Amino acid sequence: MENSESRMADREPIKITVFQAYLFWENVEKNLQNLALRLSGLKEKTDLIILPEMFNTGFTMNVEKCAETMNGPTMHWMYEHAKKYNCVVAGTLIVEEDGKYFNRFVWMSADGSFVHYDKRHLFGLGGEDKAFTPGNSRIVLELKGWRVCPMICYDLRFPVWSRNLNESYDLLVYTACWPDKRSAHWRALIPARAIENQAYVIGVNRVGYDGNEIYYSGGSMCISPTGDVVYYKPEDEDLYTFTLNPAELVKAREQLPFLKDADQFTL
Q1: What is the pLDDT of residues 48-59, one digit of tens each?
Q2: What would the mean pLDDT of 81-110 be, rounded to a whole number?
Q3: Are 186 and 205 within 8 A, CB to CB?
Q4: pLDDT of residue 8
Q5: What is the set of active-site residues?
């Protein structure tokens, strides 16, 4: 296993922008316009912009109306803004592929290349399991030497799926549409994932009401490997940039080397 110290030289400080956005129900054009307008207010260079789950439509099961292909307008918008800000733009959208629908996380780079992760745990309480096909593989991406593992909303409740076995990642990212009525769970589970996996964890949620009159109170946050709050924002739409320092990650793992004692298992 490659240890944290041997990788430290590969990591650089990384600037991350979270966008806790208000989303317009099933209105791709209006959402992309609003997101573009707000992003134009960025005042500093960033390496990664993270958007909420289904940032172009809101969390809808109306897949026939809202699905796009991997060559659709939202993918083009993501590329346009990744190129404009010379960074990665990440978030999820509904994608139709071979007659199936996926809640797909897209990691779009400034050069137009992209990688995707399909949500594994589909939210049965909201009928997501009836409308979508689950993904079956986890991915780990790299940015400025940091290994980043993307997850989507309901995945947060399943710690085995997100377990940081063999220090496979440094940063765990959850994009979400997590309702206010279960916000206490959100506030408890994200710090738990950070502490148990000795990684930074970022959760990006939305705000406002959706078309089903479900209220989302935000609560987007970044938690350090030791459980400290780097960023937390309830209620309001927010565009915020912060820096993560690799030395703090390495220090946490060296002082408390819990991961080496983790159970070895695979799904």
Answers
A1: 999 999 999 999
A2: 98
A3: yes
A4: 57
A5: 53, 119, 153
